[in-house]
Amino acid sequence: MSSERGTDSAALDVADLDEGAAARELARLARLLDTANRAYHTDDAPVMSDAEFDALRVRNSEIEAHFPELVRDDSPSQRIGAPPAEGFAKIRHARRMLSLANAFSDDDVADFVDSIRRFLNLGPDAALAFTAEPKIDGLSLSLRYEGGVLVHAATRGDGETGENVTANARTISEIPTRLTGAPDTLEVRGEVYMAHDDFIALNARQAEAGAKTFANPRNAAAGSLRQLDPTITAARPLRFFAYAWGEVSAPLAASQSDAIARLDELGFTTNPRFRRCKTLAEMLENYREIESERASLGYDIDGVVYKLDDLALQERLGLRSTTPRWAIAHKFPAERAWTLLEGIDIQVGRTGALSPVARLRPVTVGGVVVSNATLHNEDYIAGRDSKGEPIREGRDIRVGDWVEVYRAGDVIPKIRDVDLSRRPKDATPYTFPQTCPECGSPAIREPGDSVRRCTGGLVCPAQAGERLKHFVSRAAFDIEGLGAKQVEAFWRDGWIATPRDIFTLEDRFGPGQPRQLRNREGWGEKSAQNLFAAIRDKRFIGLGRFIFALGIRHVGETSAGLLAAHYGDWQSFRTAMAAGDEGELMAINGVGPVMARALLGAFAAEGETIDALAAELEITPAEARASDSPVAGKTLVFTGTLEQMTRAEAKARAEALGARVAGSVSAKTDLLVAGPGAGSKAKKATELGIEVIDEEGWLRLARGG
Ligand code: 5U1
Question: Which amino acid residue places its CA nearest to atom 6 of ligand 1?
Answer without folding.
Answer: 243
